[in-house]
Amino acid sequence: MLTKSGVKLLDFGLAKLKEPIGGQGLAATTLSAPTQTTPLTGQGTILGTLQYMAPEQLEGNQADARTDIWALGLVLYEMLTGERAFNGQTQASLIAAILERRPTPITSINQLTPPALDRLVLRCLARYPDERWESAHDIGDELRWISQTATTVAASTHRRTWQQIATALALVALGAVLGTMVVSSRQSSPRPPQIFRSVIDVSPADGLHSGGSPLEHDGRPFRTALAIAPDGRTLVFSGVQENRRQLYMRLLERIEAEPVAGTEGAEGPFFSPDGKWVAYWVGRELRKIPRDGGPPVSICPFGPSFGATWDAEGRIVFGRASGGLWQVSASGGRPEQLTMLDDAKGEVSHRLPHTLPGGDVLFTITYNRFPQWTETSLALFSRQSRTHKVVLEGGADGRYLSSGHLVYVRSAVLMAVPFDLRRPQVTGESVGLVSDVMQSAYGRRSTIDTGAGQFSISAEGTLVYLPGTVVPDDRRFLYWVDRAGHAERLPVPAGPLVQPRIAPDGEHLAFHTAQAQQDIWIYDLVRRNVTRLTKEGRNATPVWSPDGRRIVYRSSITGPDNLFWLPVDAKVPPQRLTTTSEHEVPAAWSSDGDVLAFYRLTDTEFELWTLSVDGDGTGNKIMGATNAQGGADFSPDGKWVAYATTETGRWEVYVEGFPSGTGRQQVSTDGGMSPVWRHDGRELFFVSAGSDPDESSSLRMMATAVSIGPVPRFGAPRLLFEGPYESSYPARGYDVAPDGRHFVLAQREQTPAVPLKRFVLVQNWFEELKSKVPITK
Q1: Is the pLDDT of residue 189 over 50?
Q2: Could you give the CA distance from residue 278 to residue 227 in angstroms, rounded to a whole number?
Q3: Single pTM value for the model
């Protein structure tokens, strides 16, 4: 708002513009009076209408003296041209014009205008405040200089006219100088910036890239899909348009985003500290591309990534599904390991890194291949000591902010806590701030269960996030299916039910619930009731002992998933069978109950091992079963073991002698996994991918006849039935009844993936953060 003195000078300057020269006013010869929609009074100024609002005001950003320069430029533009600088038939079109277009040069409308005056006014109307005149005083000096050098205009009448115009405009500028004194006084006692919330559309993309098939994640991204530049002006995200995946970039003052050429297949974007580069992953390769345009540059082949960050020293740090953090120069080179797991504490992975000022790294520690995401930790790696320490329990994807806070996600809630960077340690209580920030937690597969929060915060305090929750539990149903494919649904309540196993007596069924809450359940097929067997930890993959009295399973009750067994009556505590730092999954018992086959996960693949129940618990590796998944089974006589590997480039079923490892044969001929022997040993079942390309969960139940002898002979595989049932790995997702005529399978309720199209943008979010989570000295 202008002061009264400023208004008087402004009015006087406008009056001078109308003084007659040779019988005509200046406005009649070269100028027009401004088109005023509000009177020039103390309360109704030229800043009071939409047409005089600067871009930063339309975007909800803080105004300062340069905002008044914009309004002054609009007035001068109308005086010199008789036209408005920006036009629109509607409020939306007018806003779009102000945010996206430059005014037509004054010299194109009024050819007598001195170029210097044209330049002066257009600089007042620069898009960004930093590009405008610093003050109206500078404009006055420039106008006085123009009036003294107006001899460039040929005609003397025109020269005298422009000298008077410049003098009058200088008075207008001086009025604005006094007006900006009010702004200066406001700045001496600043009010907190106003917080603005808005919704941003991903158009022209059809939606965000999910990073996996709809079967895996319902179209949700499981790696961080968005990033905002440090200056808060640019948003980049991984989007899909007509099944084509690439990066999209949106300047926040623009109406929509633009695809970034050369980024096809990109996901997981993140900015360099200066905001000049965007790094991203394509498959297993890390790349970067200039923010302002240019070809992509390869940094290194490595991946897939479980979070990445770029520090001020030009290092990119990234995590993986297991193991420590790695780093590589942003200029390219060979990655090197940065952190090491603490096996004594049961650490499984270091992931989701974010650098702090000085180069130290904040990251998330998981203690299980399928973590309980309220039991993870935030840790800080010190580059000086080369060690890490936990700074917060029960969170994931932490970031340090210049406001003096750590923010992180916990069960899809954005949390914040005061943090002293000098000590460094948490100095207060955590507070929940945003209750619906999508988190990639409790996914169906470990490769998509990253824990990443879908949010990004700029250095100046703009928050952008994708609203949502953790991955919701599936609804699966269990079915009896005969050899012809006729199905009967079992009356088990729907839920995330996986890996069913039939008891040796054929009257009970064991299965486990997956995702957020993992437990072993027993279903009585006769009485039709369900009982939960396990009570603590995350427990999965039940396998019956041959006598039906015990169930062996994997459990996180002591850290990484190891093998436990428990009597079905649950009258005694579970007994631990293995003690390792690796993730282990039970597969099958030998018919005499002496040997257990199980999978052990290394850094790169699953291996098939056997364990003597009465031994020392060390186990023996089945050498032929490299990268073995999808279930294994002993023959009824215990002399052969069937398993699946990918050594030919796809899953195939093999049988080899046990424990000799001799007589290895390939059984499947067109892909296969999850083998199961019939009770009498005369048939071997397995599954392969379905033939319907539109049904990603379809599977084919195959069978091959077995001729029993010193070395078994296998007939040609034949199809029994095909249907929309689910397989799984590393353990199989189905079982065969003792009679060999019925199967139990799980079918997932299919719900169409809904494209994710909108972000929430919160400007000046630091103000809300500091008010709700104050920093105490």
Answers
A1: no
A2: 9
A3: 0.70
